[in-house]
Specification:
184 residues, alpha/beta, Severin, 2 domains, seven-stranded mixed beta sheet, three-stranded mixed beta sheet, 33% strand, globular, Gelsolin-like domain-containing protein
């Protein structure tokens, strides 16, 4: 297995079946603050997870051992990791087969849950009412039509994230929004 760079336009997009290494280097008061994160999707193989961890150690050694290493797991990302993606994190089903050329042969409808406090994370869940709740927002992507459903108890940041997500992805699509507010 080999480590493949992710094009900048895909930053913040992750596949459940893959593992990723994210390097952050910032200058703070004249010194470098370095962090290496390896992110493990819930469906990543043990081999890929092992390679991500091993390559993170190699990168740390290459940088002189100064970076702090972090293990990130899908659904339990640290706030530091999430902060690197101001447009939010999007977790998609599947994985990348070779390089970064992920090609979907046939479109399949998707249900995306938007959940989180400061920077909400968008993650794909199985389509069904049992996966929806009043505390989060959801996007149902049917291809040419997209529905946004905002739970009555969802956070303002989640509502905003839904709108940003839709604006970024719906340039050429018909858009329908459904707002649901609870009586509380």
């Amino acid at each position: 297995m080999k480590v493949v760079p992710v094009p900048k336009e895909f930053f913040g997009n992750f596949f459940r079946g893959d593992s990723y290494i994210v390097l952050s280097i910032k200058e703070i008061k004249g010194s470098l603050d370095s962090h290496i994160h390896f992110w493990l999707g819930s469906e990543t193989s043990q081999d890929e997870a092992g390679v991500a961890a091993y390559k993170s150690v190699e990168l740390d050694d290459f940088l002189g051992g100064s970076p702090v290493q972090h293990r990130e797991v899908e659904g339990a990302e640290t706030s530091r990791f999430v902060s690197y993606f101001p447009k939010g994190l999007t977790v998609k089903a599947g994985g990348v087969k070779s390089g970064f050329n992920h090609v979907e042969e046939v479109f399949k409808p998707k249900l995306l849950r938007v959940k989180g406090k400061t920077i909400p994370v968008v993650s794909e869940v199985e389509i069904g009412w049992e996966n929806m709740n009043d505390g989060d927002s959801f996007i149902l992507d049917l291809g040419q039509t997209i529905f946004a459903w905002m739970g009555g108890k969802c956070r303002r940041s989640e509502r905003l994230r839904v709108r940003i997500f839709l604006r970024n992805r719906c340039v050429f699509r018909q858009l329908s929004e459904i707002f649901r507010y609870s009586n509380r």
